[in-house]
Amino acid sequence: MTVGLTHIIVLSTALFFIGMFGLFTRRNMITMLMSIELLLNSVNINFVAFNKYLYPAKMDGVFFSVFIITVAAAEAAVAIAIIINLYRTHKSIDVDDVADLKQ
Amino acid sequence: MMKELLYHITAFKSLPLGEVGGAALWIILLPLANFILLGLGKKYLKNMAGVLSTVLLFIAVVIALSIAYHYFFIDGKQNGVYQTITICQAHWLSLSPTMNVELGIQLDALSVMMLVVVTFISSMVHLFSLGYMKGEERYANYFAYLGLFTFSMLGLVAATNLLQLYMCWELVGVSSYLLIGFYFEKPSAVAAAKKAFIVTRFADLGLLIGILILSFNTGSFDFQTVIQSLTNTQSSSFISITASSFLGMSTLTWGLILIFIGGAGKSAMLPLHIWLPDAMEGPTPVSALIHAATMVVAGVFLVAKLFAVFAIDVTALQLVGYVGSASALFAAIIACTQTDIKRVLAYSTMSQIGYMMFALGVSKYGGEEGLGYSAALFHLFTHAFFKSLLFLCAGAVIHLVHSNEMKDMGGLRKLMPVTHIAFLIACLAIAGVPPFAGFFSKEEILSATYKNNKGIYILALFTSAVTAFYMFRLYFSIFWNKSFDNHHHEHHGEGTITMKLPLLILMLCAAAVGFIPFSEFISSDNHPFHSAIHIGFSILPVVLGLCGITLAAFLYFKQNDRPDKIVNSIQVLYKTAYRKFYVDELYLFITKKIIFNGIAKPAAWIDKNIVDSCMNGVASITTTISATIKNMQSGKVQQYALYFFAGVAVLLMAVLYVWK
Amino acid sequence: MPENFFILFKQELWLTAILFILLISKLKDKQPAATSLLTGINILLLLNFLSGFFFNAEGSLFGKMFVTNHLHVFEKNILNLAALLISLQSTKWLENHEHIIEFYVLMISSLLGMFFMISAANVLMLYVGLELSTIPLAAVANFDLKRKTSGEAAMKLIISSAFSSAILLLGISFIYGCTGSLDFADINNLLHKEPLHAAAFLLFFVGLLFKVSAVPFHLWTADVYEGSPVAVTSFLSVASKAAAVFALLNVLNKMAQPLSSIWHDALIWISLLTIIVGNLFALRQQNIKRLLAFSSVSQVGFLLLAASANSSLGNAAIIYFILIYVFSNLAAFGVIALVSAVKQKETLTDYHAFYTNNKFLSWCLSIALFSLAGVPPTAGFFGKLFLLMSASQGITFTVLTIAALNMVVSMYYYLRVVRTLFANNENECLEAIEVPITAKIALVICVAGILLTGVLSGAYNYIITLQ
Amino acid sequence: MLLSSLVILPLLTVLAVAFCKELQQIRVVAFIGTLLQLALVAYIYTAYQSQSITQSNFLLERDCEWFPLLNIHYHVGVDGISMAMIILTAIIVIAGVLVSWKIKELSKEFFILLLLLSAGAYGFFISLDVFTLFFFLEVAVIPKFLLITIWGSGKKEYSAMKLALMLMTGSALIFVGLMGLYYTAHSFDLQTISKTLLNPEAQKIIFPFLFIGFGFFAALFPFHTWVPDGHSSAPTAASMFLAGISMKLGGYGCLRVATYLLPYAAQYYSPYIIALAAIAILYGAFATMMQTDLKYINAYSSVSHCGFVLLGIGMLTQTAITGAVMQMVSHGLITALFFAAIGMLYERTHTRQVKELGGLLKVMPFISTVFIIAGLCSLGLPGLSGFAAEVTVFVGSWQRTETAYRIATIVSCASIVVTAVYILRATGSSILGAVKNEHFLSLKDATWNEKLAALLLLIGIIVIGIMPYVLQNAITAPVVDIMNHLNANK
Predict the structure, then answer these.
(1) Can you name the residues that pair with B91 across neighbouring β-strands?
(2) Do C148 and A100 touch (CB under 8 A)?
(3) pLDDT for C102-139, tens place per residue?
(4) pTM of the predicted model, to two decimals?
């Protein structure tokens, strides 16, 4: 059995939903951040797979995924900085404790 | 602006009345000038105000008399018919391309007669008021209001069209309001003024709609056009107005009935009479002028003015006749029981106007058949003199006694001889004793009624006896009965010469005007005709009148307990009549219970609680929704993401399955 | 590299230069005094703004990934102006802040990202611009380090935007899968009205709607606006939103024309929802920043309604409205920033009888609110009307009526603030607030903008000529 | 340029007032500004008179492009109707400034807002482009809100908000209607649209938006509820302006925009308009009877009287429409006079409750006389303006012979009785009667400025009452134009 595009799409979709599930349910902010990384990586898989299977002539998809990885790193850096600061002010990294602004 | 204004006043046309005709404008302008001068300059005029306005009024009387002389004896008649002459016109408004409202002065026999009556009585009242109102705080205001009234009354009688009539009609209503409420610090005066205005306003509504009907169907407000097109049975407007009907009556009938309602309101006909007795709260000379001689007969004037049209429509004219006769009797009965002398006079006025009304109601159009018409106006004419005389006398009495109640009076004949004689003559005149004025006019009315409607004739006879009774009841109670106890009152005699002079003049008139051959001047179709008194016919009413007088003398000449006995024996009837047949209570019920509590209160309530609440409800619903959905913004970032995802999902579903 | 690279890339280069200057000055051991630093930065920003008016050209760079034309230059100028005004307004707050340079570095990076977003003609460029504009903002939202809410706002912003970019990227990946290209023009040619294409596009589209905070993707907005420092809030609400709208317009016009019937309907529903929900939430707010946040949500609804028209008239109306919105919102936030610097909080009750001692500020705030409410003669009236006018080509009377009636609802909460300002209670009113000259200049510019851009039709006509 | 100066002059005055320092200066500058307005209006009137009617119905026109791509023009011009409304505005504004002479608190802002209002009203009446017209209509809303919420009395905040929101709702509907108009006729220009034959079905959809929208301003039942609260909470000058001019904006709009531009729909909806107007007239009058606050009485009576305007418009006969326009002018003057008198009384006695007042004629003869005259005029006394206008409406309404129209006319006529009742009740217990409160005896009569204000309004009322043809001649041509338009689009 060769691994076709479909398999990879299924994988990436599964990854996406796993990531989303994690994002919605985990209370720990660091875990949420990791879930987001899952989301982004599933997209990366998409790009690479599309590029390889459908449009192998150009490298657009691959490059895009490189950009995503880079940006995700930056994003994670900022997010972690924010979470650290939150820990300083709230003494917690539970996302439910940080819900003063509402309604 | 000025140029435009002048342009709009049509220059005096070449008039058959020659030089004098133009002066008719002055009759109307002088009282107006009076009103404006006194209204603006009351601070500076002070006591001169009365004199000034009286002088102006006398000038107006002179002009009116000379115009009447010219009209009736020199220029007015052409080919044996009294002409309708338009003296001047000023454009006021165009209500449609064809319906121009021109304010102006139009003279016909009726108007000329009324001009004379109004100016003359007004001048007498002015003269009388000089003494009567002396020392009043708002002396100038009083004369200003009188000026306004006289102006509007003259405008009414000289109106060229229905709308002008309506305008002046309202203006006399307002001046009546102002004068009744002259003593505005007295709550009863304010209430009476209000009542008078509102009741007549209600009637005016009828008049207004009636005018709308007639003017719409004839395409004009002008009396002449309206009358011409509605009396010509071939004209298109006549056909259209009689063809259409509503609730079984033709539009014409409706229009005339509505107009008559207006007239009935002003003339205090049943059941719109309730304001008149209360209107006696005003100064007495005012009652003499407005509520006896001039304004209250406006209804009669109105029906007479449109008589040619009324004569075509039997239903409306019958209504006039029956309402008139019922009012005459009704008021006469009440008058027998009242103790306030002015109220007695008020009811007597109502009764006498009832006479005029039913005389019109039984009359026919044209020639000798129109005797009722001439008689009604003849009675209007004579009544103006003797009734204003009665009021002025009453005024003099009240001036002396400081009370309106009969029980405070009695035996005044020695203290006020002039008043006494004047009052006696006026009473004789109203009772129909020959040769005083009332006799002649009443005889004409009775003979016209006899010819056309026997039922009304019998009522009228009875009323005439009752009239004689209550008038002499009044006379005896004031001037005879007990002797006057003047220890309690500071005696200041009969008043100044200015108060006595008008009494004397009016006394002469009340005695003499009956000899005028009235139908030679005023007739339904303006063709003069001769009417004679039939001695034989007159015997019955005169005898009945004398019976009434005798009865009154029997009961009231000396102080005794006979009246009380009679009252006790017919207590229920007496009470009912004394309480004016509970009409006031009925009105109170209708206004307070039905209109106030039944309509106005719910309207205000609905506005506040339903209409407004709906508007506010929209706002509160919005806030409620806003409060309900506030938890969407829970503050939890994971839920935000969930909503986000739900949004995406819904959008995708919608795109994939709904829109495709 | 084309010979006019420096002209086409002028505005971005300016920003980069400023960034370098700031970084270098940060590296120096001795920091300059706050006031002189701020003055310098303001002058730089002013020069940056002015540069936008000279030597403009149209063309593309980086293999057509980056396109610029007069309209884009104008859009960027609007953003430059916003940045300048915000900087002028927040001097009072920044003077006492220890990280002035960092603030500007982050803000200008974000601005740079926005410029890339606007000029993007390629999905990759758009994505990079988007992230460049968002991530620094999250950091800068946390700038009141001690305040709990500030951290919360930053957290919510970064997590929400990360999630939204994930969705956006998913969309992009499928678009790439469907078309094999990242170039706007190519995608425009290759996209069809097919379910997969439509779904892919919608995922991408939603990512952008998140940025403009359309309902139901708006939930972060109010919290972030409320929690962030006022300067950041104004930047978020004005610049960030404007850039996202410009980018959205670009995408809709240049990339998604084959699917216009789909996004037309979607936009109408979303915009109605946005208008209504934004208004309903705004109605009950007691915090003036939060109130303005929700009001801005509802304003976006009107923008989207015009965007649904898919016409040049609509685009012009949107750009015009954004210009006005910059003035109005910044006038409002300018006043709020000053009050907040004194009071440290922004509840509506603090503004009770504000007029008694602060006439100038009250008038500025009122005029700004009137403009937001769309009351003539302020420019907001014209802005909103033109939006609806261009929108009404493609919508039913019902939609138009709902939108118009929502203007009345929004009227309520704006007037509520105005009423509070003018209440005559002299006992518990705020004392007179000292207005620094820079803030005064900024406010005067804003108010003049509000009063003049509408009545004098020049601005609008100019935008029309740009297209 | 001449007409535009009507808008510019108040704005210049606003600037001048803004730079004033002392109270006295502010008043005088504002007064001079309004005097100049009056002079300008008089000059425009003479200029208008001297130009003969050419092909166009509008004179002193000026048309320049404003937003060319949207086909929005700044287009102004006057015809008889707008001329009448402009004169009305000038008179009421000057009277408003005069009665506000004593305002001490934030007087500068007060006069500024009042002048802004007048600028809005002038602009509205001279606009020949519906967009410009809408612009000026909305300009006049917010100053009202501020005037009430800052200087008002009673539950002013509620009233001000209610007024603003309801008027804005009206504007929102008008806007929707305008959009419909624009996308049907592709123009905002009044004359251009009037020359285009609009699709009847489209007219039927657009008309309700425009008519109800303007109806909010003109107190169309059931959208009148802002009137009582708004008027009674407003300071005197604002009440005068609200009832005198603001409500006329609605009537003018109903006529000039809704009826004129959508003649087919106007005829289609005529019965509904008539029904609402007749209800407003009688129901408003009855509701007035139960009011105890003088301002509420006048406010509700305004609902009733403005019903005549809508009735006249809805009847669609030349006479009725003429009457409607006359009623607009007349009611503007009367109600302003009434509010001025009530304001003067309130300023002195500090109460507006009918029950607490009494016998004021003795204490303050001038103000009381003004009050009585205003009352009499309100109940339609001939010789004053109210009668001429109402009778024209009645006669015009009677020209519609259908039974429903007749009933509506009779119902409306019946209001003259109810009006008399409430006016006389109010007058009877507050002005006449015995002095109810000792301290009333020490009160002073009107000052010169108040007298001047009252006289100014009175002159207007009397001139129209005695010479209504002056007003009528001015408005005949435009009304005939509207009628021709209606008849051509049956």
Answers:
(1) B102
(2) yes
(3) 999 999 999 999 999 999 999 999 999 999 999 999 99
(4) 0.91
